[in-house]
Write the structure tokens for this entry.
Amino acid sequence: MRALTFFASVLIIVACSQGQSERSGRVSEHIERTVAKGVRFERTALFERLGASSTTDALWSAALSRADVLRIGRSSLQSLRGSSTGHIALEIPSSEGELVLDLERVDITAAGFRVVEAGSESEVPYEMGLHFRGMIRGVPNSMAAISVFDDEVMGLMADDAGQWVLGRVENEPEGLH
């Protein structure tokens, strides 16, 4: 599972940096042009924010200076995974208010993509997630990359104020993020 998580993380980084023409604020410019054309971004709410408590703080306090703990809605996640929508407005609740990411679905693999085991070169079964790239709504020059899998969502968001990471809490049976 760790290898799969590492591989998925690499895919997110590739999605963030894919295409030199889409770097340094150009992702947000592309999304702004898409919105201006009237493309509808489908409202997508996958998470519920859990209030701070000693239990939730214990999940992250050893590794982070600040975090919000989110519970993923399994039915919403499966609905998105089964959807063919190309544009979503992903709502992420936080202690500072709701963050909305305007995201466009992207294919981050080359034709003939496959996962092979090092050394043996035998193909490893892998279910591709959904990958999205976009921006934080209303924040010019921001960037966001989100990957959605069967039981988790992972992503990176950045603007002039800093960077944020979204991911599943390791070894957490409820799938908290």
In short: Confidence is low (pLDDT under 50) at residues 1-24. The two ends are 17 Å apart (CA to CA). Residues 27 and 134 are 6 Å apart (CA to CA). The chain has four helices and nine strands.
